[in-house]
Amino acid sequence: MSSAREAAAAVVDPEIRVVTIADLGILRDVEEDPATGRVVVTITPTYTGCPAMDVIRADIRHRLAAAGHRDVEVRTVHSPAWSTDWISDAGRAKLAAAGIAPPAPVRRDGVVPLTLAVRCPRCGSPETAQLSRFGSTACKALWRCRACSEPFDHLKAL
Amino acid sequence: MNNPLTFTFALALGDDALIAAQRLAEWATRAPEMEEDIALANIALDQLGAARLLLSYAGELEGAGRDEDALAFLRDDREFRNCLLVELPNGDFAMTMAKLLVLSAYQLPLYTALAGCADERLAAIGGKARKESAYHLDHAALWVKRLGDGTEESHRRMQAGIDQVWPYAHELFVAQPQAPVDPATLRGEFDDTVSAVLAEATLTVPESGWAPGGGRDGVHTEDLSYLLAEMQVLHRAHPGARW
């Protein structure tokens, strides 16, 4: 029986299949009661209306069942609110390798907003432009590289 | 019922978000360009997400066994507590952007205030939804400026859109001193946000005058009945249907 945490952390995001829910910061906590074997997994949505949440809950149950954990509860919390700052460095690297530009650090109140160029995940050029403020999923916007002309997804800073 | 005031408040906010989502979704396949089609559908999805959280919580507070689906699909028009603004027909694209500007300039300070309120559940919902509202506001402001400060025709239609929705903003800020957040306290920030956008868009802030209301008491325009008929027909025809 592998650890419940490892099993839950290995669940991939159903819409961006190169990263896991642990990489994205969707997985908040995994607690296993050593006496009863009961596992409580706590997750948080990226966006309130994210349609992937039901699939993520089902995938967590399947993964844990396959790892020998039968008594599983998946809890969804909304506070503290998910932020793209929770995406791990490994997650950012995986996104970039898959052609999705990772988000810039989130703009905080009271700090002078500094606009960092979104680098093209294909050629690395900072000569990029936003094509559409919304993209293929709630968490992404559509950009294009002026240097290599490739369009690419960009995870919006939230 | 545990807390009737919080129930009414959560229900009203949930209904605002639900009806706004339904109206925005009507734009699917009809927006002026494909990117905008995706944008409006995404904003609708965010509104629906907030509606689900708020209506689920309202159902729990009521304690009568009604879940989010029962509240969304099995109430009649007189039982809805949304503001009239969100049920207005979409009109042209400029009017839809005027509605979105007013709605998001109201929801952003509302959710922000909610994030700091004493009710833990509402605070969590506010903390989450305000980030999405900020993006909606940016999007609406961008279009209002682009159309307002655009051609003679786009300016004319953007001003007409603002003039049409302006009277309906009044209802959003009617004082509710006992509510978790008193909407009257948000009016200043709303006015600052909207007048800055309109100034940059070379548009005029309309005079305040006629101020229709009644949505919070369940007195709606006939437009809501048609909207509900379309939104609820499947659930009512096939109770408990799943896919």
From TrEMBL, chain A:
Gene3D superfamilies: Fe-S cluster assembly (FSCA). SUPFAM superfamilies: Fe-S cluster assembly (FSCA) domain-like. It comes from Micromonospora endophytica. Pfam families: FeS_assembly_P (PF01883), Zn_ribbon_PaaD (PF23451). Residues 9-74 form the MIP18 family-like domain. It comes from the Bacteria. Transmembrane segments: none annotated. This is Phenylacetate-CoA oxygenase subunit PaaJ. Residues 116-156 form the PaaD zinc beta ribbon domain. The gene is paaJ.
UniProtKB/TrEMBL annotation, chain B:
One of its GO terms (cellular component) is cytosol. InterPro entries: Aromatic_CoA_ox/epox, Ferritin-like, Ferritin-like_SF, PaaA_PaaC, PaaC. It holds the Pfam family PaaA_PaaC. One of its GO terms (biological process) is phenylacetate catabolic process. This is Phenylacetate-CoA oxygenase subunit PaaI. The lineage of its organism: Bacteria, Bacillati, Actinomycetota, Actinomycetes, Micromonosporales.
